[in-house]
């Protein structure tokens, strides 16, 4: 919940999700189909490239994958200190696919 700094108040929530299809960013062959190598997913210079008006391979990948109907991609975590098996889910299209689970109305959203 907190990666840096002092512990802040935290609310954990549950979601129900119906998301797919997902591109497997761990699969080199699947990435090759989009003209990108696994190492390019971890490129720390993507923001500099974007700000300087240069093409960003990961953004090109996202646009091509969206055009082919993918809702998101599963990728390894590139966070410093993350275990080798840690994963991230990056979603491009989640509208209507994710709903908050609050069966006991603990968040008080039913009264709003």
Give the strand order, joined by hyphens, for the main sheet.
2-3-4
Mean pLDDT: 89
Q: Which percent bin holds the helix content?
A: 10-25%
Low-confidence stretches: none
How is the main sheet built? 3 strands, mixed
Query: What is the strand content?
Result: 15-25%
Q: Indicate the radius of gyration in whole angstroms.
A: 17 Å
What is the CA–CA distance across the termini? 26 Å
Could you give the order of the helices and strands? EEHHHEEE
- Annotation field: number of helices: 3
Could you say which structural class the secondary elements and strand pairing correspond to? alpha+beta
The shape is globular
Q: How many separate structural domains?
A: 1
Structural account:
With 112 residues, this protein is α+β, with helices and mostly antiparallel strands. It has one domain. Helix content is 20%, strand content 19%. It contains 3 helices and 5 strands. The protein has helices spanning 28-32, 46-51, 57-67, and strands spanning 14-17, 22-24, 72-76, 87-91, 98-101. The longest helix is centred in the middle third of the chain and has 11 residues, at 57-67.
